[in-house]
């Protein structure tokens, strides 16, 4: 997706507590700021420490007046069920970057509900471009299971019209020195996994 210069780009980052969703949103916001965009951010923490939903809304463009997104251009889903949950908040034909990870909520663990099957296929069937990313696998390859969030940020970077140096500097600004190298590796692996396939077009990718 090429950013329209005279309009805001709206990104939803949705996950559960402990997945690093908030840091991912901060890196996106900082990269957009470094690229000269006006940026607004809104965060919602739903019992984050207990695995509840955590959602960050990031809007950037020439002039952004509100931090709240009506319908997003891109959804970064850190967990598959969260991807399904937020589809109603997307524009037609929006991009969904879906982490290949499932975290069962309490109703599923207790047997009160069933976890939906074939979530990527369901998302595609509703007309959204879909990129499924092996976040855990790439994070392990980068050197830390905790770097899944930066893998997904890297995949997001392939979708947005923000310069590479802005992303690199954002990581330098926000990640503690001891963890920068592994986070840069995770970012690069995520971006490579998305590649040019994530840009433009209406054909779903996998």
Overview of the structural elements:
The protein is of the alpha/beta class and 206 residues long. The protein has one domain: 3-Layer(aba) Sandwich (Pyruvate-ferredoxin Oxidoreductase, domain 3), CATH 3.40.920.10. Helix content is 38%, strand content 22%. It is built from eight helices and six strands; from the N terminus they run βαβββαβααβαααα. It has a six-stranded mixed sheet with strand order 2-3-1-4-5-6, with helices on both faces. Helix 2 links the parallel strand 4 (72-77) and strand 5. Helix 1 packs parallel to helix 6 (148-157). The two termini are 16 Å apart. Mean pLDDT is 89; it is low at 1-5 and 198-206.
CATH superfamily: Pyruvate-ferredoxin oxidoreductase, PFOR, domain III
* Distance from first to last alpha carbon: 16 Å
The total number of structural domains is 1
Number of strands: 6
Determine the mean pLDDT: 89
Element-level helix/strand string:
EHEEEHEHHEHHHH
Shape, per Cα inertia axes: globular
Rounded Rg = 16 Å
Going by helix content, strand content and strand pairing, the class is alpha/beta
Count of runs of 4 or more consecutive helical residues: 8
Which residues sit in consecutive blocks of at least 5 with pLDDT less than 50? 1-5, 198-206
Q: From the 3D structure, determine the CATH topology.
A: Pyruvate-ferredoxin Oxidoreductase, domain 3
How much of the sequence lies in strands comes to: 15-25%
What does the main sheet amount to?
Answer: 6 strands, mixed
Strand order of the largest sheet: 2-3-1-4-5-6
Q: In CATH, what is the class?
A: Alpha Beta
Write the CATH architecture name.
3-Layer(aba) Sandwich
Query: How much helical structure, as a percent, in the residues?
Result: 25-40%
